[in-house]
Backbone:
């Protein structure tokens, strides 16, 4: 005798819920989160340091969390911008989750912080599945990483709300084919903005800050096709996984997982029936 | 390797399942896994066996119901299999306002409780037909 229980339970629902709650709570405090994702060495820390310094010079209250498997180097680099910075050591975990971000904020995040940047663990696979309560997800790739990066990491690029090309100063030497890169981004995420930057030369600086401030001011960030799923698909105001309160458009997530369906029912099956099954490939 | 985190989340979901069966032994878990969910099935299977150790899922089988990616462009009505890497730009009108009909699923859709353990079902091989939802 064997019983089958039907669930419709999203596996990452807990993280999604926590992220939604965090997004709403931070929105109520006037803080917008920006999640930065890339491979190790793409230039997240270098660009972020420059953007933080620019924000500070303009009097925009910003702060940053930087995640790393083990060292504190990135926090030391970012702190040179003169804004609140905190290192998150993930102890080997390959990605951040929403409650790890929350745990860092308690007693640290200064009141009145407008933008909180989170430099995720250098990894284009795992962090893509975890909503951190951000309202803008930025995915970076340097000109040395190859034009096919968006096709190799479709989940990361497919869910990006802004794509930043870094190290444009060495684009020529690296033989970077901008058109091919843009075409590949378009295949997995049509409509997402792609900007070119060089932290070294200072070109394209301020673009990330401007986009972040626009979202903080209530502008709806890009909604990737990959995030247009389930019940909210096809509407331009869907809430993604957002389970928090509607505290303005800046509180919405654009990269949800399949929603939680609490339709739960149990029904007996004979052993022969087992899990509703049939042969298939 | 976030498959380990996914596996741990699955075990949590199952042990806290609102069906009130939190401590009944589970012999199989059926997961609907979309092509675009960003999870490697083999890696997940391996992590799942580790994550189950010492829980009511110890020895449970992971049955993966693969869901191919499908997209639909509302403006022009085209519908297509996204493939991998996915084509999410409309192949008919080249528009960027499509929606995903399927492919991002990562859902536990059924649990099998029973003393019989994971052995093969006498009714036939393991694969599970995708349920309508
Ligand atoms: N040429 C050039 N190198 C850069 C640029 N930005 C970062 N780098 C270098 O790339 C390496 C990795 O940068 P880092 O910011 O630590 O990358 P992260 O791992 O993504 O945080 C460092 O050696 C940087 O000096 C840039 O704009 N141009
Ligand atoms: Mg860094
Ligand atoms: Zn179309």
Residues:
């Amino acid at each position: 005798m064997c019983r089958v229980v039907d669930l419709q339970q999203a596996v990452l629902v807990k993280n999604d819920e926590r992220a939604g709650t965090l997004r709403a709570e931070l929105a109520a405090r006037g803080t917008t989160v920006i999640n930065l994702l890339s491979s190790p060495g793409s230039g997240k820390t270098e660009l972020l340091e420059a953007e933080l310094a620019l924000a500070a010079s303009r009097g925009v209250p910003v702060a940053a969390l930087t995640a790393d498997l083990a060292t504190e180097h990135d926090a030391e680099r970012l702190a040179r911008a003169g804004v609140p910075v905190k290192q998150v050591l993930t102890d080997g975990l390959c990605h951040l989750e929403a409650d790890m971000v929350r745990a860092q904020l308690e007693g640290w995040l200064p009141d009145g912080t407008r933008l909180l940047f989170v430099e995720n663990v250098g990894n284009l696979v795992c962090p893509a599945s975890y909503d951190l309560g951000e309202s803008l997800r930025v995915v970076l790739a340097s000109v040395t990483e190859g034009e096919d990066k968006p096709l190799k990491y479709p989940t990361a690029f497919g869910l990006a709300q802004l794509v930043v090309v870094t190290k444009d100063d060495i684009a020529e030497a690296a033989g970077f084919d901008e058109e091919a890169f843009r075409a590949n981004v378009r295949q997995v995420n049509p409509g997402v903005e792609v900007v070119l930057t060089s932290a070294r030369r200072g070109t394209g600086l301020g673009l990330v800050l401007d986009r972040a401030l626009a979202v903080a001011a209530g502008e709806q960030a890009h909604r990737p096709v990959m995030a247009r799923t389930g019940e909210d698909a096809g509407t331009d105001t869907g809430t993604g996984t957002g389970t928090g309160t509607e505290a303005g458009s800046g509180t919405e997530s654009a990269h949800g997982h399949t929603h939680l369906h609490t339709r739960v029912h149990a029904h007996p099956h004979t052993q022969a029936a087992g899990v509703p099954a049939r042969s298939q490939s | 390797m976030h498959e380990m985190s996914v596996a741990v989340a699955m075990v949590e979901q199952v042990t806290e399942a609102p069906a009130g069966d939190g401590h009944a032994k589970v012999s199989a878990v059926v997961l609907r896994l979309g092509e675009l969910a960003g999870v490697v099935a083999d890696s997940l299977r391996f992590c799942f066996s580790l994550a189950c150790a010492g829980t009511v899922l110890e020895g449970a089988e992971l049955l993966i119901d693969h869901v191919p990616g499908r997209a639909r462009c509302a403006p022009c009505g085209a519908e297509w299999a996204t493939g991998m890497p996915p084509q999410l730009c409309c192949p008919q009108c080249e528009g960027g306002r499509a929606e995903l009909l399927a492919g991002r699923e990562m859902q536990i859709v059924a649990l099998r409780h029973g003393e019989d353990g994971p052995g093969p079902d006498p009714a036939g091989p393991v694969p599970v037909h995708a349920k309508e939802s």
